[in-house]
Structure formats: C-alpha cells, structure tokens
Specification:
about 230 residues, Rossmann fold, six-stranded mixed β-sheet, about 40% helix, globular, disordered N terminus
C-alpha cells in the first residue's frame, strides 16, 4: 500500500518542535483514542498483528515526525473492546512530547495481555466508551476516535442508536475495516453507520497482514488533516 504523495510530502517536510514537558491542556493540538476490536471473530494471530501493527505505525519515523511537529502536543490513549460489557484500557492518556514518549506508549500496547476473547462485537458500547475517554483526556483543538474492527456490531446498542442520543459535536470518528477490501458491504456499513464528524473516513485492509501499513497511512492522514484540507 503506497501512501498518497501529498501525505508523504507533508510527513517529510515537517520541522521538529521542542515543547515544554508540562504543556497546558489548552495547548494540545489533537487527542486520539485508539479503539481496538478483540471480539471472538479475531484469533490470537490477528490480535497480535493488530497490536503490533499499531505499535509499528507509532514507531515509524514519518509518523513520529508528524506527531512531534504539530506546534502543540498530541495526546494518545488506547483501549480494547468486544461485547457491551467489555472495554479495557491498554494505555492511559499520554501527551507525546518526545520519541521516548511514543516508544513508551507503543510498549504498553505490545506488553498487553488480551481480554474479552469470547465475546461478541459491541460497536455502539465501544463508541460510548471512547467518548467517555475523550472527556477524561486533555482539552485539545481536535478530537479523533480511531476505531478498528473486522465485523458488524451484533450485540448491544447500535452505532446509530448511540449517535442518535448525541448532540452535534466536533469529534471525528474514523474507522479501519480489517478485511474490508474483500468485504465491500462491511466497508460500506462502516462508512454509513460508524464514521462521524468533520473529515471522517473509513479505510479498509485486505486482512490483518497489512494492518501496520494501513494504520500508518491512517495516522498520517488524521494528524495532517488540517494541512491537507488547506492544500485543496
């Protein structure tokens, strides 16, 4: 999977900035919640590829340059989810100010032991938990929920029902549909039912094998969204 040239141009053109170690909350440029599906449709290999793929994307030099060059810090948190009763934090909120911070966040992902293994897929409850995580994080100029899954919501409230209770807001919900290139109807379901907010999009992979490259491209697109919009 090749990154669009415009993303590569921005990724290589950024200049690293030096931020204070204790940045005020209102100086946060972007908050990202990673929501990883660990329901029973995923076997152990797929689960490992998902966690290792996200960690590899965060360790990528182009991604790190972009994360550390926004003029104000980016804040990250991650959790795993499956059925309506299972959402578990993988990494608490962290303002990433240095490469060491990003490495520490990535290490929390790779060191995590999986839970929620035998449960079904509760996408609506996962979105509810993600919004709650945003409220516990720093106040940032932009807020993004980055949800990945390989199946339809089949237990608990639907994404539509969850969103119907929310007032309009500026939160962007993006999706990575694992296997969506082979399942276009599933991909379309995420586009019509899950993504939401300014500039929202749903990307798809062939399988878990190309997850790392897909999440890398997705991260660059999310962090660089304002610059990409200005370039059009």
């Amino acid at each position: 999977m090749n990154l669009p040239r415009v993303i590569l141009a921005f990724a290589t053109a950024v200049v690293l900035g030096c931020m204070p170690s204790q940045a005020p909350a209102d100086e946060c440029s972007l908050a990202v919640v990673f929501a990883l599906d660990v329901s029973k449709s995923m076997d152990s290999t797929e689960h490992s590829l998902q966690l290792l793929g996200l960690a590899a994307a965060l360790r990528d030099p182009a991604v790190q340059d972009v994360l550390l060059s926004q003029g104000a810090p980016v804040a990250l948190t991650a959790f795993e989810w499956s059925g309506p009763g299972y959402q578990a934090n993988l990494a608490d909120w962290m303002l990433v100010l240095t490469g060491r911070d990003i490495e520490a966040f990535a290490a929390r992902l790779t060191d995590h032991a999986r839970g929620g293994r035998s449960q079904r897929t509760g996408t609506g409850p996962a979105l509810s938990f993600a919004y709650a995580r945003l409220k516990l994080g720093p106040a940032c100029l932009r807020e993004v929920i980055d949800i990945s899954s390989d199946g339809y919501s089949n237990e608990g409230q639907s994404p539509h029902d969850f969103y119907s209770r929310l007032p309009p807001d500026a939160v962007t919900v993006n999706a990575l549909v694992v296997g969506g290139k082979r399942r276009p109807v599933l991909w379309e379901w995420f586009r019509s039912q899950v993504i939401r907010g300014p500039g929202a999009f749903a990307m798809a992979t062939e399988s878990f094998d190309d997850y790392a490259e897909a999440i890398r491209e997705k991260l660059l697109r999310e962090v660089l969204a304002p610059q990409l919009a200005e370039s059009k």
